[in-house]
Specification:
Layout: E1 9-17, E2 26-32, H1 41-51, E3 56-59, E4 68-74, E5 79-80, H2 84-95, E6 103-110, E7 113-120, E8 125-129, E9 135-136, H3 143-149, H4 151-156, E10 166-170, E11 173-179, H5 183-187, E12 210-222, E13 227-236, E14 240-242, H6 246-260, E15 266-273, E16 281-289, E17 296-303, E18 305-314
Parallel strand pairs: 2-3, 4-6, 11-12, 13-15
Antiparallel strand pairs: 1-2, 1-18, 3-4, 4-5, 6-7, 7-8, 8-17, 9-10, 10-11, 12-13, 13-14, 15-16, 16-17
Helix pairs in contact: 2-6
Length: about 325
C-alpha cells in the first residue's frame, strides 16, 4: 500500500441537503482547506469531478475575525458564483458544533458576494440571505422550443403553453421558468433529452450565464397569508436531473413574488423537488418586495441537512 503523508491530505464530509433523512435530498461534498488554502482552482475542479456530485464546495480557513469563510463552489465541469444547496449544506456543517439550542451566525464569501447565514441547533434549520440582482430577461423562450426539448409536453398539453421567461437571480445564474399544468405532466418529463435550442434563448446583453430549465407546478396558493406550495424539477442535459436546486428555487420565488407586485409584501414558498427521482427535497424561500412592489428587497433560502459520511481525501 502506498503511504501518503498527512500533509498531502484533506478532510471532507458529505451531506444530504434539504432533507432530515439520509439518502434523500441533494448530496454535497464539503472539503476543508485548512491545511491547503492555496489549492489551485484546477485541482479543485478535478476533485469535484472525482466526487461526481452536482456540486462540491471548498471551505477556506476562517478570517482573522473568525466568522467569515471563503467558499468555492464547483460542479463537475465549472465553478459557480452561487448555488443554493451548497450554501445551506455549508452553513449546517460549519454551525453544527455550536452549543445546543443556540444559533450560529456565519458569513460565507462566494464569487457572487457575501452571504449572511445562520444555523439553529434547536430547529436544525439553516437560513441564508441570498445575494440577488434579479433580471427578468426581455425575450421569453417560445413554448415550441420547450416542447422540442421535452416532446412529452407537446402530447400532454396539446401543444399549448405560455412562453417561458429566462430569469437570473445573479449574473451567471439563469433559469428558464417553465410552468406546467399538472403534477402528472411534471412527472412525465424525461431526463437526458436535448437542450433548449440556444437560438431560442436570448438573454439580455451582458448577461451571459449558466442556464437551465426549471419546470414547476403551483400546487396551492393562500393569497391572504402569501404562501405558496410548488412541485418542481430541474432537468439539464449535461448535469442530468438535480434533486434540489436552491438557486433555481430562489429565482422562481422572486419571479412569482414580482408577478404579484404587492408593495412591501413578504411571500413564503414551500418547494418540493427530487420526488420523481426518489430523493425528496424540501426547500424554503422567503421573498420580500420593496415599497414599490416592483423590486426584490430580500431573499432568504432555508432548509436542513444531514451528515452522511466523513473521511480523508489524498491529494
Amino acid at each position: 500500500m502506498t503511504q501518503v503523508g498527512s500533509g498531502n491530505s484533506l478532510s471532507y464530509v458529505t451531506l444530504d441537503v434539504f432533507t432530515r433523512e439520509r439518502f434523500l435530498g441533494n448530496p454535497l461534498a464539503v472539503v476543508d482547506l485548512s491545511s491547503h488554502s492555496n489549492l489551485s482552482q484546477d485541482r479543485k475542479q478535478r476533485i469535484a469531478r472525482e466526487f461526481n456530485f452536482s456540486e462540491t464546495v471548498f471551505v477556506h480557513p476562517p478570517s482573522s475575525g473568525g466568522s467569515s469563510r471563503t467558499v468555492d463552489i464547483f460542479t463537475t465541469t465549472e465553478e459557480l458564483p452561487f448555488a443554493g444547496h451548497p450554501t445551506i449544506g455549508t452553513l449546517v456543517h460549519l454551525g453544527k458544533d455550536a452549543a445546543k439550542d443556540s444559533e450560529e451566525t456565519l458569513i460565507l464569501m462566494l464569487k457572487a458576494g457575501s452571504i449572511k447565514g445562520t444555523f439553529s441547533n434547536k430547529t436544525g434549520i439553516a437560513e441564508a440571505t441570498i445575494p440577488h440582482n434579479v433580471r427578468i430577461h426581455r425575450t421569453p423562450v417560445p413554448w415550441q422550443s420547450v416542447v422540442d426539448a421535452q416532446p412529452t409536453l407537446g402530447q400532454l398539453t396539446a401543444g399549448h403553453g405560455d412562453p417561458s421567461p429566462p430569469v437570473s437571480i445573479v449574473k451567471g445564474m439563469t433559469f428558464v421558468l417553465v410552468k406546467i399544468p399538472r403534477i402528472e405532466d411534471l412527472a412525465a418529463l424525461t431526463a437526458g433529452g436535448p437542450r433548449i435550442d440556444p437560438r431560442a434563448l436570448q438573454l439580455d446583453e451582458g448577461w451571459e450565464s449558466f442556464t437551465a430549465p426549471y419546470f414547476y407546478v403551483i400546487i396551492s396558493e393562500d393569497e391572504k397569508k402569501r404562501q405558496m406550495r410548488l412541485r418542481v424539477r430541474m432537468i439539464e442535459p449535461v448535469c442530468g436531473e438535480d434533486p434540489a436546486t436552491g438557486s433555481a428555487a430562489s429565482t422562481l420565488s422572486t419571479y412569482l413574488a414580482l408577478q404579484r407586485a404587492i408593495p412591501g409584501a413578504t411571500y413564503n414558498f414551500a418547494i418540493e423537488q427530487g420526488v420523481e427521482m426518489g430523493r425528496h427535497s424540501d426547500i424554503g424561500v422567503k421573498v420580500t418586495l420593496d415599497d414599490s412592489g416592483k423590486a426584490v428587497e430580500d431573499v432568504v433560502l432555508y432548509g436542513s441537512a444531514v451528515l452522511v459520511s466523513q473521511g480523508t481525501l489524498y491529494i
